[in-house]
Amino acid sequence: MVIVSAKVNKRKVLLGLIAAVCIIILLAVLLKNADAPEQDTPQEQVVSMNGGTNEERLAFLERYGWRVDETPTETQEVRIPQEFNEVFTRYNELQKEQGFDLNEFAGKTAKRYVYAVTNYPDGSDGHYATILVHKNKIIGGDVTGPAQNGGIHGFAMPGER
Predict the structure, then answer these.
(1) CB 152 within 8 A of CB 94
(2) Is 21 domain-assigned?
(3) Does residue 8 lie in a domain region?
(4) Domain annotation covers residue 3
(5) Quick one: which of 15, 25, 34, 127 has the most CB atoms within 10 Å?
(6) Which sign does the torsion angle of CA 113, 72, 70, 87 carry?
(7) What is the 3-state secondary structure (H, E, C) of the chain?
């Protein structure tokens, strides 16, 4: 039979317990922060990215101030290129400026919804809002003007960018 004895210093045991409690509290705080959603820009916090239904897409555009015809003028499936050419790279820069990045969807298929804008600030006709949706989430889009102007910009209303 083997007997082991150890002399235990009460102060060291108390310090060890205090250190263990501090470590547990620190881990709890870190794990809670890891589960918290990342902070987005204020506009991204307000605007829902759900786009699976027509109502969600209309609400998305309305939050930017756009009024559009309720029925899309065009709906089609589009494939995001696997490798971006110069034109698509520039288009993706526009997307990045408004908090989207189509690189994440390279090679994937998305739904493209085009709505006629009825309240363009300069009062002109022929402007369209395009929304790209992948798996019921809005992943990008733009507002374009008539062919003679050829203007394309993000969802922000002109003058508010």
Answers:
(1) yes
(2) no
(3) no
(4) no
(5) 127
(6) positive
(7) CCCCCCCCCHHHHHHHHHHHHHHHHHHHHHHHHHHCCCCCCHHHHHCCCECCCHHHHHHHHHHCCCCECCCCCEEEEEECCCCCCHHHHHHHHHHHHCCCCHHHHCCCEEEEEEEEECCCCCCCCCCEEEEEEECCEEEEEEEECCCCCCCEECCCCCCCC
Identify whether 87 is part of a domain. Answer: yes
Give the pLDDT confidence of 35-94 residue by residue, as tens digits.
554 444 433 333 558 999 999 999 999 999 999 999 999 999 999 999 999 999 999 999
For the chain, how many structural domains are there in total?
1
Please tell me the pTM assigned to this model: 0.68
**Distance from CA of residue 145 to its chain's centroid?**
24
| Structure tokens belonging to residue 54 | 């027509």
Q: With contact defined as beta carbons under 8 Å apart, do 75 and 113 qualify?
A: yes
Strand-pair partners of 113: 75, 131
